[in-house]
Amino acid sequence: YIIGEKTEDYIMNISKPTLEVLKNFATINTNILVREGNTLATISNGKNIFSRATVGETFSKEFAIYDLNSLLGLLTFTENPDLDLGEDSLKIANGSTEFEYYYADPSIIVAAPDRTIEVDNFYEFELTKDEIVNITRAASVINAPVLSVVGREGKVTLSVGDPSTPRSNTFRQVIGETDKEFDCRLAVENFKVIAGDYRVVLSQKKFMFLDNKAAELKYWLALEPNSTI
């Protein structure tokens, strides 16, 4: 939210929920183009992870950041700093201290498209925050490379493991029923979502769509080429 104004500069605070989104986006891509308005978006270099979030702040101008992690380090260096958006740089101030951080050339960063991706509802289910935490922990413990959602013989099972290795350690959970047959595989390394409650849709365009139920936060995650849907 804007709390002050100069001739061409705008002073604002960045809320903790927005910082959480930016920290998550930095795991997807350290480049980001912040567009005018209240929507943030990022896309991975491989174009296989795309996310958009509507945040509580309104950015008064468009600017590009090359190393989002370094900016986040400055934003968390002091408690509740003021952010001053200038013409060529932003200033991060707290009392008598101030950092100046220069914008990047937009032409050298990988910017997310300013649009959403249409979702066809092939199969839909829900994931809770606890389930996402369990999936992430299980994948880490057994060093699983793939998250699978499989519809077979009337049941839908979510698992993390290695489908290419029959005797690999695997975590499984039945999440629903279906009359469809599919085997959707997602690289665990691409499951970079903020833990929360989500509506999840599997698309025949071979991506997994996650829509956060408590916030305007969405992810489009590309499935592995050997998925069948």
How many helices? 3
Strand content: 35-45%
Strand segment count: 17
- How far do the termini sit from each other? 43 Å
Spans where pLDDT lies below 50 across 5 or more residues = 1-8
Rg, please?
Answer: 20 Å
Mean pLDDT: 92
Tell me roughly what share of residues is in helical segments: 10-25%
What structural category arises from helix and sheet content?
Answer: mainly beta
Strands ordered across the widest β-sheet: 4-5-17-16-15-10
H/E order of the elements?
Answer: EEHEEEEHEEEEHEEEEEEE
Largest sheet: 6 strands, antiparallel
Categorize the overall geometry: elongated
Report on this model:
It is a single chain. The chain is mostly beta strands and 229 residues long. It contains three helices and 17 strands. A six-stranded antiparallel sheet has the order 4-5-17-16-15-10. It has a five-stranded antiparallel sheet with strand order 1-2-7-8-9, with helices on one face. A four-stranded antiparallel sheet has the order 13-12-11-14. It is elongated and about 65 Å long.
What are the defining features of this structure?
229 residues; elongated; mainly beta; 3 helices
